């Protein structure tokens, strides 16, 4: 009886070990498939996608939308009507002054009050964004996201090619690490472009809010046009930088492709 129980337990252990081996084998095969997929995608990106994209962005830079001669052409009218000025009487008569202050308090006005008029509704409807800049931003943002995604794929590919840590013969590994660092830098810069676009909208919205509150102040309206011009120039620079980053990455990786793929001639085992 005892032998039967021991034999059954032993068989259960063997079965469990076989299940574990099968699971591990399946996981390893899935990891290998992932590595092969990343390798195929990354090599295609470097060989084909990067040069095509840099030429595409170079053509984009030559389009009329990015070559406006007079920046006044990108200005957007802000439809805010200037209300009639409020006339306050400054009587030196004590009774008139007291009655005047009473009326001011009832109307929500005070001598020390410096706030503009409260805005509950815009007679002309919603104040629109700068349509030309919005259209341009909607073309640039997908290009930024594409660069971030493609850099992430190539970075993962290079990281998977890094061999285990060993003494000596690490020149090829240093090239891999420099390539990863450059890809990471490009990712960070591209992400900052998206943040810059968000800050433009926030800054412009605050200025437009100031205009609705202080419509008599011309400087606020001029500041909005200055912000629009600055953003237009920034968007052109962003497109130029995106093109340059594709050029730099393509050139850097192709020049060092042998060392990136085979950092050590005697040991090709990867770190991961």
From TrEMBL:
<dbReference type="InterPro" id="IPR036996">
    <property type="entry name" value="PA28_N_sf"/>
</dbReference>
<comment type="similarity">
    <text>Belongs to the PA28 family.</text>
</comment>
<feature type="domain" description="Proteasome activator PA28 C-terminal">
    <location>
        <begin position="127"/>
        <end position="269"/>
    </location>
</feature>
<dbReference type="GO" id="GO:0005737">
    <property type="term" value="C:cytoplasm"/>
</dbReference>
<dbReference type="GO" id="GO:0061133">
    <property type="term" value="F:endopeptidase activator activity"/>
</dbReference>
<feature type="signal peptide">
    <location>
        <begin position="1"/>
        <end position="22"/>
    </location>
</feature>
<feature type="domain" description="Proteasome activator PA28 N-terminal">
    <location>
        <begin position="29"/>
        <end position="85"/>
    </location>
</feature>
<keyword id="KW-0647">Proteasome</keyword>
<dbReference type="InterPro" id="IPR009077">
    <property type="entry name" value="Proteasome_activ_PA28"/>
</dbReference>
<dbReference type="GO" id="GO:0008537">
    <property type="term" value="C:proteasome activator complex"/>
</dbReference>
<protein>
    <recommendedName>
        <fullName>Proteasome activator complex subunit 3</fullName>
    </recommendedName>
</protein>
<dbReference type="Pfam" id="PF02251">
    <property type="entry name" value="PA28_N"/>
</dbReference>
<dbReference type="InterPro" id="IPR036997">
    <property type="entry name" value="PA28_C_sf"/>
</dbReference>
<dbReference type="GO" id="GO:2000045">
    <property type="term" value="P:regulation of G1/S transition of mitotic cell cycle"/>
</dbReference>
<dbReference type="Pfam" id="PF02252">
    <property type="entry name" value="PA28_C"/>
</dbReference>
<dbReference type="InterPro" id="IPR003185">
    <property type="entry name" value="Proteasome_activ_PA28_N"/>
</dbReference>
<keyword id="KW-0007">Acetylation</keyword>
<keyword id="KW-0732">Signal</keyword>
<dbReference type="InterPro" id="IPR036252">
    <property type="entry name" value="Proteasome_activ_sf"/>
</dbReference>
<dbReference type="InterPro" id="IPR003186">
    <property type="entry name" value="PA28_C"/>
</dbReference>
<dbReference type="GO" id="GO:0005654">
    <property type="term" value="C:nucleoplasm"/>
</dbReference>
<dbReference type="GO" id="GO:0061136">
    <property type="term" value="P:regulation of proteasomal protein catabolic process"/>
</dbReference>
């Amino acid at each position: 009886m005892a032998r039967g129980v021991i034999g059954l337990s032993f068989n259960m252990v063997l079965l469990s070990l076989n299940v574990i081996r099968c699971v591990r084998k399946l996981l390893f095969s899935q990891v290998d498939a992932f590595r092969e997929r990343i390798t195929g995608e990354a090599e295609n990106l470097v060989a084909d996608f990067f040069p095509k994209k840099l030429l595409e962005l170079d053509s984009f830079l030559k389009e009329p939308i990015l070559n406006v001669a007079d920046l006044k052409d990108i200005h957007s009218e802000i439809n805010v009507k200037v209300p009639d000025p409020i006339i306050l009487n400054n009587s030196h008569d004590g009774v008139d002054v007291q009655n005047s202050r009473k009326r001011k308090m009832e109307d929500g006005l005070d001598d020390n009050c410096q706030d503009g008029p409260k805005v509950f509704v815009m007679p002309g409807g919603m104040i629109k964004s700068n349509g030309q800049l919005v259209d341009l931003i909607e073309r640039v943002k997908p290009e930024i996201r594409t660069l971030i995604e493609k850099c992430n794929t190539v970075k993962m590919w290079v990281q998977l090619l890094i061999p285990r840590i060993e003494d000596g013969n690490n020149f090829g590994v240093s090239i891999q690490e420099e390539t990863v660092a450059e890809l990471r830098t490009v990712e960070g810069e591209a992400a900052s472009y998206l943040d810059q676009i968000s800050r433009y909208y926030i800054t412009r919205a605050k200025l437009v809010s100031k205009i609705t509150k202080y419509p008599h102040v011309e400087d606020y309206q001029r500041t909005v046009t200055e912000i629009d011009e600055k953003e237009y120039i920034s968007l052109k620079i962003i497109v130029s930088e995106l093109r340059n980053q594709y050029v730099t990455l393509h050139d850097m990786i192709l020049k060092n492709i042998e060392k990136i793929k085979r950092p050590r001639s005697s040991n090709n085992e990867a770190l991961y």
